[in-house]
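Can anyone check this?
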Amino acid sequence: MDRESFHPEAPMKEPIDGEALASLLTKWIGAEATLWAYELSHKKIVIRLQRTGVRGNLHLVCVATRSLSGPTHWGNAQLEILGEKGPWSVLVDAQSGFTLVCSDIIGTEDVEPVYWAG
């Protein structure tokens, strides 16, 4: 068996941004949020949202992160994009005290690994 057939790549998911992402965030209100990944070279932070007992997730990819304050993991997430602050986008969860400032925020649903959060 060749490598490609043994580990086939998952199909690329469509990235979501702008108003569609702001609308999608309302679907994930109350989810559990986790700082999932950080890539130093691009100052990229990934926040993963998932719900207990629900299969799936939402990854928020924050590009060219300028600043970050708040918890690294919290429940009952109330994330919202406050729009732009000059050339920067601001992602906040006022209830948890989380604020992230970056150049762009892109969302993707059902990113591997996809499992039932418990």
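Reply from J.R.: I decoded it. The first strand starts at residue 32 and ends at 39.
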